[in-house]
Amino acid sequence: MKRKLFPLLIMILIPVLSYAETIDVKIKGVDDGIKTTKQRDYKEAVLFAKREAIERAGVKVKSLTTAKDFVIQSDYIESEAEAVLLPGYDIIDIGYQQDGTYLFILIGTVKTKALSTDTNEVERDGNYIRYKNGIVYNENTGLEWFVGPDEETNWQEAKKWVWSLTVAGGGWRMPSRGELEKLYKKGSGTRNMTPLMRTLGSWVWTGETWHQNSSNVWFFNFDRGKSFFYSINDSHIFFRAFAVRSRR
Fold first, then answer.
1. 96, 77 contact by CB (below 8 A)
2. How much is the average pLDDT of 51-60?
3. 69 partner at 20 to 30 Å CA-CA among 31, 51, 140, 176?
4. DSSP code of residue 173
5. Domains (ranges, CATH) in the chain?
6. Quick check: 54 and 111 in contact, CB under 8 A?
């Protein structure tokens, strides 16, 4: 039987506060009550809990419903929200209930995203602006970028660095293939990207796995202008980590 497509609730959030604030949350996570696999129902419950946690961060929420793949839904909740569930949260896995829903309890901390405090422009390259704090802003896409350490980096190291980045209030994430593709401009700089993104590397990790449960992750090759996949456990001299977020 075909699974009914679960609608995406994209969160467009307007902060009540102009500074970062943290709140503790304890939330029940439930799925839609339609049994599929334990793994998928668990992920649906996680998505529900994350959405509820973000709503409790003291923000106004405008909801737009769009049909999207479930995996992408999680990316939207993590990247578009003006509040984030901080890493290190705990989950009490309760499992299936009599009504067929999957239930767990999420206990953690939510942080509202602070506005960038350093807006001193130091360089400009077309639609790109580099600020004193190292952030590079693309006026066309509305995305802010921050380049990681200019050294060989495997995917696990890249992920850890991005999650721990606190520049201008934090809220950073790993980019998607599509976002990196928009950075690509053949002949620009020395790496086919704006020279304001200062790196000697030309292969940049994404946050996307090749397919569900895969140990291979997509990366974007700026030498060739295409995406490829590579093992999360391996490294290469050309691999780098970029962090991205939507401008608030």
1. no
2. 66
3. 140
4. B
5. 7-112 (no CATH), 121-246 (3.10.100)
6. no
